[in-house]
Amino acid sequence: MKKLWNIADLIDLEFFLNQDNGEDLDSLSARDRQIYTDLPSAIQEATPQKLLRAWLSSRRESLHQEENEIALPGRTWQEILYLFFGIALFAGLFSGGGLAFSFLSYSGREPVNVAAYFAVFVLVQAILFLLLAGSAFFRRIQGKHIIEASLLYRLLLRLFTGLLHKIMAGVQKKTSQKVSAETRLKWSAYNSSIKQIRQRYGLLFFRPFFLVVQVFGVCFNTGVLAATLFKVIGADLAFGWQSTLQVTPASVHNLVHWIALPWSWLPNSFI
């Protein structure tokens, strides 16, 4: 079933509602009545949610016919979000692959330090996962929302909303000399509509940015795995467990055994 609403729709809805503030109620009623009568009979008998969606679609078409020089704030939001996803994807792949290549560099003199590789790419992420799980557990006990009450939520929300406002302000500044005064007034309403979305639908507004961070993490690990497989398969490497700690071979064997436990069910031919 197709989703009825998304964040871009909510931003456009707030934008049109802000435009109606201060307007004559009689003219607004006449306009909305005309929109309703122009709808097909099947939609006229639909639920209020679908009627509101039809009203939004009609307002979008009307604005598009009047102003062809700018995009609606919802579309701008989607384009900026796609930009964030693209940056996270390529940044994760290149940073993960580049960092793994640097750790697996082998000049033939000293073996690759497996301890450092394990600490950076496995141990750090395992500690972060445990901290996240522990924080989620205590937030659940306190009755708070796991994501919204976290420090990561507040930091990422400030980061991405700040970047979003700067990008939209930059676009508005570059296009202000090419558009009409009425269009510039509409652009000034964009930021207010986004602020209202953030205040009214705070957690819903944040979820796409949380997904951006998750995309970066997945792509980072994908880059690490790809670089590791390429170096292990395509190069002659020597590995060593270099550490100042007094670790016996039996301890290293036990550690490797526990790390490989999730893959222990695979046949030996796959390992």
TrEMBL record:
The keyword Transmembrane appears for this protein = yes
UniProt keywords, alphabetically: Membrane, Transmembrane, Transmembrane helix
- What residue ranges are annotated as transmembrane? 80-104, 116-138, 204-230
Protein name, as recorded:
DUF2868 domain-containing protein
The yes or no answer to whether the keyword Cell membrane is present is no
Checking InterPro entries in the record gives: DUF2868 (IPR021296)
Top-level taxon: Bacteria
